[in-house]
Predict the 3D structure of the following.
Amino acid sequence: MPETDIHIVSNEAGEATAVIVPMALWKEISSERETAYLLKSDTMRQRLQAALQRQNGVPLEDAVAKLGL
């Protein structure tokens, strides 16, 4: 992503006060922050690691049909 897609907003004194970023970048940042927050808890870390190792599951189409969506 080109740096020109990021815009810095300044106040009257010229101090940077905010940043405007593309939604794709914001979603990436948000996701990383959420993951970091979840990993702070030992319980959540264990649950996330267990979820990554699971090999079984229900296909999305089957879940949608079962729920009647």
Remarks:
- The longest strand covers residues 16-20.
- The beta strands are 7-10, 16-20.
- The chain is about 55% helix and 15% strand.
